[in-house]
């Protein structure tokens, strides 16, 4: 893990807050000199870039602005998931801001896609964190101010963790603080003097970070001399003044004496690597230019420079023998040449940190191969290390952290060789990497190593046997694309994190059961496309599989794996295993999704009582499940989506605690066992797109399901009779099935609220019993191309919309009874694209109908008296229509009326006259503010007084009285289209 580069990372939905709240917050953060990462790209792709992942990892605090559409963006949700991952792993601070949204709504947001589980978990987690609510902290300016103050407090508390592990840093800070005499009200200059490379910049930066919240204005300028040579003294001076005061100060204006603000407040200035006292005096002037209590820290390699600059006191660094820490930021350094014996005499060196934010590791060169590192080194962090191995005599028994990500390492130490062993665990001839010679084995003993990070070391072919690292807690080998095998993690009792995501050549992995026995354990195998063998060794009496185990498997697109859990792989099931249920964590999850080569499961796997969730989603070759031998009370979720399952075992009834069963896209599944009716706790059953499913048992209606989804089951032809009343079923989705008819017992689904029959192309009739359903109802019959009629009892339903669009065989519309009961709620009726010939006179009984769509009814001839309260009639392209009668007793309602009748040349004169008359009435009715009529005709009505030919109308000499207050009602326009 790299040290944080940014103080704050802003996560937000651009279209919601970029131009308002986020911009105000970012401006205030910048004004307070808080280093903030903000992604200002307006057009962003579907996936987060590696640079953005790196920025997230290199930030101390995450501010998540949860706005209205934040949870609708896959980009934002992926970003949020990565942020929370860093929070869990690195202990970073997360500050949620609920901007014009309710935290409880964020927690229960439902609009997700393929990554639904991870996104739900992320939103639920962030909504539960303590944060800021824009509805409770007002006005917005106060909210911004208080958030920034909160961030400053958290940054101050982050100081200790930022510099934890830098040997001797506390001692340096304390000594310099004592020289600063912060309790005195005067202005003081303190110098830090010493040779190059002994940590002057690191010490000054640490003091600056610790004291920054005590000063109103503060700034640190690194490499002053280098900047002066590059851009000139005046530019450096104006630049730091601009940053200090938060405004653009031109070079011609950079005289301190003219800006009284600096004299009225405390200032903290750090000037690093100053070589000329006169230049320093020009930069800062005199003590009187700053407010009482201000402090100026200057680092230099020349003691005389500090004395000539009137430093009040000077802190002296030591030589190489006293060096405890080396810190090089390669972003700021063009080129570094190191001698082979650079570190030879640094006997007290405890930490080395080389940072390369932009991958310019090539800027570090060696006269010869690096010969040595101090053996007392505790912390080695060298990104983009340019050599193929570490010195062979390096024996760092005290090393606690080794971080050499993005390196050119092929192996950590010389002496590792490759050979073909006589016996390989996987039995597939996989080559094993071992250490040669006992001497090398002894030299590689790392008894205190806790963290090993070699991520994206793309040339790495081998890592040491981790058994020599008994205290190791984290092993991060992500993106090591040349790594083919990781030695066994046996005896690693403290291992919590094993990250192997992106190790595309890794073929086998053997892990110990220890990591599975801790809730904090994480094994990441995402994008291990060639993984063939996974062996779990050790005795398993008690297993806790946290949500992190196999994290990322569900994202793999090309995973090929064979999961071996048997005695031959040193996998043992202890005698007490089945008796440990009371002590098992109830959030136990096993996710081996998208293992595309997996063909069968061990019989024991579905009989492990500790499982609460089990996912085999995307195991394309898995054709059957093993029989379930004993009752399983803990398994709540079973996901078999996109497997090759042909049938479910009848022993499914033993899953008595099952609440969710998903079989979506199981294209070979033909039947469902009747024993499914015994799963009394089952609440969700998803059978969508089971393309071979032909039927299902009526015992399914014994369940307490709220939704039954058969969408896309293209072979499903029969819907069984319902034998008893079922209250829980609220939604049944039969979209795109081959259903021919529904059972007469449909009315026994007394709780049914939604029935989706869209594109049921074989459905011919609807049972009359449907009218006995009493709940508010939604019925979708669109594109039921074989539907010829429907019962009049349908008008008894409490339905607001009836849509028969695309029902091309529908020819008859039943009479509507005088007592239509609940159909008074019907407001929309669409017969678009149907074959209706005549509508009944009783259509006028639909007194609540507001919209009638008859478009594309090619055979429609007669439309009798329309319902009285319509405000929209659409009859585009109705070539056969001869008669249509508008209701002159219509209620203006909302004050709008639309009437479209096109391609209707057969319309009789009486109907046309009725339409023209009705148009005149409505246009002149003050209750309407918008009236649109479009109908066949050959002349403009005579009551339009201003007429002209062409494509425009010009009004001349309009009377001033016409436009006076309370007189102008509106304009009526009529156009004749040739």
TrEMBL record:
One of its GO terms (molecular function) is ADP binding. PANTHER family: ADP-RIBOSYL CYCLASE_CYCLIC ADP-RIBOSE HYDROLASE, LEUCINE-RICH REPEAT-CONTAINING PROTEIN. This is TIR domain-containing protein. Keywords: Leucine-rich repeat, NAD, Plant defense, Repeat. PROSITE patterns: TIR. Gene3D superfamilies: P-loop containing nucleotide triphosphate hydrolases (3.40.50.300), Ribonuclease Inhibitor (3.80.10.10), Toll/interleukin-1 receptor homology (TIR) domain (3.40.50.10140). It comes from the Eukaryota.
